[in-house]
Amino acid sequence: MIQKPRMCIVGFGRMGKCCARYFSSGFDIEVISQRNIQAEAQERGAGQSKDPRRSLAQADYVFLAVPIEALDSWIARINEFTSPDCIVMDCCTVRQAANEKLSRLQRPHFGLPEIGTTELPVDGEPDPLVREFMEAQGCRLYRIEPEESGKPVSGIAHFIGMALDLNLTADERKELTGGKAGQFLLGLIEHLKTNSPSTYKETQLLDPRMSARRKEVIAWLDNLDEELDGGKFRFQPHPSDQWRE
């Protein structure tokens, strides 16, 4: 029987769980977590580490599914306890901030900001075995650069959703349930709660482009507000919905 390569997943939030389920068919997986997640790990084809140092020492791969602020301590442990040829992966969304910390890794490394779709971005040079495994699952990897040129579009939705969640009263939320537009806004708020809070925090605070992007969105709203106060309405509905005599 061919022994599967060993992967140690650090962290068992949304991405850690997704990683365990995704890689369990091709890797022998142990999860390092301070919580008792043995049952959850087993449901995803993994086990919980009883000795984190031993798990790191035996790992062929380490997958960091932790917030950027937790990277420093785990980088130190990986440098100390893993073998020199251990491959390290991470799933941080804000690549520039993550890579500044990960530059202190003394092991080969690449980033996988997403897992599980058919088109997956990869930051750095992916390990051949991982690439082969993922391509066998029907995934195509494509290279990205940290904080690619362009504007962080998804951060706009995060910003608007957080603003609504922080400011809508209970009565206002109840009123929004009465219409499709209101339900859409409530759906945006709820969507933010399906991911790790650190993802949105890092997107807003650590992506160097977001401060200017937020202010641009605010300027759009201010300009539209002024136009509407002045009786100017530029939005064009679908032609079939336009009133005609």
Describe the protein:
By secondary structure, this protein is of the alpha/beta class. The protein has 2 domains: 6-143, NAD(P)-binding Rossmann-like Domain (Rossmann fold, 3-Layer(aba) Sandwich); 153-232, no CATH class. It is built from 11 helices and 8 strands. The strands form 2 sheets. It has a 6-stranded parallel β-sheet with strand order 3-2-1-4-5-6, with helices on both faces. It has a two-stranded parallel ribbon with strand order 7-8. Helix 6 (128-136) links the parallel strand 7 and strand 8. The longest helix has 20 residues, at 210-229. The N and C termini lie far apart (77 Å). The mean pLDDT is 91.
Task: Give the second-level CATH assignment, the architecture of the largest domain.
Answer: 3-Layer(aba) Sandwich
CATH class value of the largest domain: Alpha Beta
Domains (count): 2
SSE order, as H and E?
EHEHEHEHEHEEHEHHHHH
Number of helices: 11
Query: Low-confidence parts lasting 5 or more residues at pLDDT below 50?
Result: none
Gap from first CA to last CA = 77 Å
Secondary-structure class = alpha/beta
- Percentage of residues in strands: 5-15%
General form: elongated
**Helix fraction bin:** 40-55%
Query: Rg from C-alpha positions?
Result: 22 Å
CATH topology of the largest domain: Rossmann fold
Number of strands: 8
The strand order across the widest sheet is: 3-2-1-4-5-6
Mean pLDDT, to the nearest integer, reads: 91
Q: What composes the largest sheet?
A: 6 strands, parallel
Q: CATH homologous superfamily of the largest domain - what is it? A: NAD(P)-binding Rossmann-like Domain
